[in-house]
Amino acid sequence: MAARENWGSRFGFIMATAGSAVGLGNIWKFPYETGSNGGGAFLILYVIFVLVFGLSLVMAELLIGRTTQKNPIGAFRELGGRWWSPVGAMGIVAGFTILSFYIVVAGWTLAYLLAMISGDLSNGDPQHLSAKFGEFISDPYRPIAYAGLFMILTAGVVIGGIGQGIERAARLLMPALFILLLILVLRSVTLDGAGEGLRFFLLPDWSKVTGDTLSSAIGQAFFSLSLGMGALLTYGSYLPRDSKLPSAAATVVVLDTSVAILAGLMVLPAVFAFGFDPQAGPGLTFVTLPAVFAAMPGGQFFGVLFFALLAVAALTSAISLLETVVCYFVDERRANRRRVTLIAALISFVLGVPASLSLGIWSGFQVPGTSMSIFDFLDFTASSVMLPLGGLLTALFVGWKWGPQALSALSNEGEPRFALGPLWLLVLRYVAPLGIGWILLQAFV
Ligand code: PHE
After folding, report:
1. Which residue's alpha carbon is nearest to atom 10 within ligand 1?
2. Angle formed by the axes of helices 246-273 and 163-189, to 10°?
3. DSSP-derived 3-state class of residue 406
4. Mean per-residue pLDDT, 370-394
5. Would you say 230 and 84 are in contact if contact means Cβ atoms under 8 Å apart?
6. CA nearest 72: which of 245, 226, 257?
7. Contacts of 328 (CB under 8 A, 6+ apart)
8. In angstroms, how far is CA 337 from the centroid of its own chain?
9. Other C-beta atoms within 10 Å of 336: how many?
10. Most CB atoms within 10 A, among 182, 298, 377, 444?
């Protein structure tokens, strides 16, 4: 068998992993989830979940991948025997599910990029922008065509293999996105009336916290960190065995969380300044930002740049979703990379069609037994159920089944021991399973 492909450099690996983490989850999902879940309290819960569960589990997933150099199913089977391989399998299913609605929203970014370029969004009137967005997503064809286009782009990169492409793109574009966000935050917080939005985002109102808030916040933490479905495990499997993990994990977590907070500071003050509804749901970022662009000099330029960078950030995340699925079939089933990628992309696209329609002509339809649209149902099942459950099982696996051996796997030969290792193991044994388990129960009772 050919040697497994490795990342070109440590920096490249960190950028690619951050590229998986930073995406629509940060810029599209985080602001609207915060808006729908009462603001500041959601932000604080989210940050706590990232620090307490997220960091330890990012390390755990990367470590399983680095140690086994395998796909999620193969990795769990190698270290834990066949009873553990379903954890990897659930990850593959979650990957398909997320990809299906992810490409829908990613398609919106392409459409908005073109609309920015053509000057179609230059009228910054909030009502006009809301109406335009509503018209676009309820069109039965256009959003689906853009989702398809985005799926083709994603599949194209994945067919080429992880090599230089992902690394090179992520290296350049991630810093550019970061700087652009800073500029837009500055514009947003200095708008007239932005103060109310800042208070909403930063000051917690604990009376608004319910079981649903907890499960949305933990779902958001896992979704944003690409955690709980084997994407990080897969990226870790392309690491040489002697690379250091704790600092890489910390860098990715800090980058991802800062981008989410910046996105909140960019969107929410503007939501209040322009009189949008913070509870508007999935359209929030898309209706608000064009109003921000219209209110700044060079707005069209910044708008084009923004949607271009957002599309690339979405692409580097979608690649990791598809790569996880493809990696399994290529490794375990010796399938042809190209063929598997095309089939997986087609299945996700087909699943994405009802997700997109459920925001438009099918918006009256609710998934039986719930009060959710197809779009929300796919998101909820993947983000708030499958990902936390995958994380919980990963914590149990590393904490109890792999146990102290995981600690020696973490400190590579010749490396000094990781001083916080025992604490890390403690979190995986007790804190994460109990905490995540309790929140999952809340969602169902
Ligand atoms: N973390 C990505 C984002 O925030 C989404 C993602 C989830 C990617 C799970 C891979 C796995 O956009």
Report:
1. 226
2. 40
3. helix
4. 95
5. no
6. 226
7. 71, 72, 73, 74, 88, 92
8. 24
9. 11
10. 377
The amino acid occupying position 395 is A
Mutate to test the pocket of ligand 1, among 109, 232, 317 (most ligand atoms within 8 A of CB): 317
Of all atoms in ligand 1, which is nearest to the CA of residue 225? 1
Q: What is the pLDDT of residues 82-117, one digit of tens each?
A: 999 999 999 999 999 999 999 999 999 999 999 999
Residue 245 near residue 59, CB atoms below 8 Å: yes
Closest ligand 1 atom to 25 CA: 4
pLDDT in tens, 31-69: 999 999 999 999 999 999 999 999 999 999 999 999 999
> Per this entry, what is the length of the chain?
445
Specify the residue with its C-alpha closest to ligand 1, atom 7: 226
Contact 341, 143 (CB under 8 A): no
Q: Which residues line ligand 1 (CB under 6 A)?
A: 20-21, 23-26, 98, 223-224, 226, 229, 231, 317, 320-321
Please state whether 22 falls in left (phi above 0), alpha (psi between -120 and 50) or beta.
beta
Do 222 and 387 meet the contact criterion of CB atoms below 8 Å apart?
A: yes
Cα–Cα distance, 435 to 236 (Å, whole number): 25
Half-sphere exposure (CA, 13 Å, Cβ side) for 307? 27
Q: Which atom of ligand 1 is nearest to the CA of 21?
A: 1
Q: Which stretch of 81-85, 92-96, 158-162, 229-233 has the lowest confidence by average pLDDT?
A: 158-162
Give yes or no for a contact between 46 and 220, defined as CB atoms under 8 angstroms apart: yes
Distance of alpha carbon 391 from the chain centroid: 15
Q: Specify burial of residue 425 (Cβ count, 10 A radius: 0-12, 13-18, 19+).
A: buried
Q: What is the DSSP string of 271-336?
A: HHHTT--TT-GGGHHHHHHHHHHHTSTTHHHHHHHHHHHHHHHHHHHHHHHHHHHHHHHHHHH---
Instruction: State the residue for tokens 């609309």.
Output: 115
Contacts of 117 (CB under 8 A, 6+ apart): 304
Mean pLDDT, residues 355-369: 92
